[in-house]
Amino acid sequence: MAAMPDSHVVQGAASASAPDLSTAWLRVFLDVARFGSFTVAARTLGWTQSAVSRQIASLESALGGAALFDRLPRGVRLTEAGRVLVPHAEAVVERLHGAGRELAALREVSGGQLRVGAFATADAALVPRAIAAFRARHPGVRLTRREGLTPVLLEQLSAGGLDLAVVSTTGRAPLDAYALHHLLDESLYVAVPADHPLADAPSLRLAQLADADWISGSPRPEGTLLDAAVRHGFRPRVAHVVAEWTAKQGYVAAGLGVTLVPALAAESVRSDIVLLPVHDEGAPARAVYAATARGRSLSPAAAAFLGALREAAAKIPT
Predict the structure, then answer these.
(1) How far apart are CA 52 and CA 36, in angstroms?
(2) pLDDT score, position 106
(3) Could you tell me the sign of the dihedral formed by the alpha carbons of 103, 106, 112, 115, in that order?
(4) What is the dihedral of CA 63, 65, 70, 75, to 10 degrees?
(5) What is the rounded distance in angstroms from the CA atom of residue 36 to the CA atom of residue 78?
C-alpha cells in the first residue's frame, strides 16, 4: 500500500464557521466522484478501500456530518451535498496545481518575472548583451528594465521595485547596505576631436588637460566621472553641461571641448572623435556591481541573469 500523503490544511475565509479541510480529503473525494466507486478510486490512488472510506468520512465530519455519497449495491452516487461540493473542491485542487506549476517554473527559470535596473552607461553594451543571452536561455521569463542613476536604483531596490540593479561607485552612493556582486573595474578614456594635438598619443594623464574645456553632465566634478580630475590635482573647467552620451560626443567632434568616456561606453563612440586611455596609477575610476537587497533571497531568474551579466562583463575592455 502506498503511503498516504500528509494532510495539508486549507484555511477558509476569516470566518469562525469556515471548516478546516484537508486537500487530501478533497482529492480523494473528487476521485470517488469521478469513478463512482471507492474501490476504483482506491486502486487509482494506490490505497486500500478502507483508507479511502476513512478520508471521505473525515471530510463528511468536517462539513457537519452531511453524507456526500449514497452507498449503492454497486458503487456510490453523489448526494445533493456532494454535488454542491464538487465545483469548490475542483477549484481548490486546481489552484494548488496552478501554484505548483508556477513554483516549478520559477525553479526551472521558465516562468515568472525579473525586474532589472541599470545606470545609463551600462545600457551601452553590458546590459543589452546580458539581456540577449538571458532571453535566449529563458524565453518564458518576463524581463523588464529600468534606467536611472545609481542612488535612484538603490532606492527602488530597497522598496522592492527591482530584483537586481547594475550600479557603480560614481557619486559615492551608499552601497554598504546592499549585497554587491562585482562585475568589473572600469577604466576611463578621454574623448578628443580627431584633430586634437594629443590625438595620436597612446595614453595621457588627466593633468595634461588641466587647461582644456570640459563637457560634463554636471557643472561640478563631485559625484561624476570628473572626480578623477580632482584626484589628479586640478578642478576641470566645465564649459558645457550635457547629459546624454551621444550629445557629448557631438560637442567633442565640433571641437568644443573634451569629455571622459567610461569603458562601458567605449564601443559606442562615433568615428570622428578619438579615445585616449587615461593613465592612472591609482585605483580604477569606478567599480561596477550587480546589487541585490541584503537579506532577500536571490531568485533563480535573478541568479541566472547575474551569470549573464558576468559573461557580458568579461567581454568589456577594461
Answers:
(1) 13
(2) 64
(3) positive
(4) 70
(5) 8
Alpha carbon distance 65, 253 (integer Å): 86
Q: Name the amino acid, one letter, at 284.
A: P
Question: Angle 123-312-200 (CA atoms, 0-180°, nearest 5)?
Answer: 75
Rg (CA), the chain: 32
Strands of the chain, DSSP E: 9-10, 21-22, 69-71, 76-78, 113-118, 142-147, 164-168, 178-186, 188-193, 213-216, 237-241, 259-262, 273-277, 286-293
C-alpha cell at 201: 598619443
160: cell is 522592492
Closest CA to 136 of 317, 314, 299, 311: 311
Sequence-distant (6+) residues with CB within 8 A of 229 are: 206, 210, 214, 221, 235, 236
Question: Rounded distance, CA 18 to CA 33, Å?
Answer: 23
Kindly report whether the global pTM for this prediction surpasses the value 0.85.
Answer: no
Write down the mean pLDDT value for the chain: 87
**Looking at residues 14-27, what average pLDDT do you find?**
71
Q: Mean pLDDT throughout 58-74? A: 91
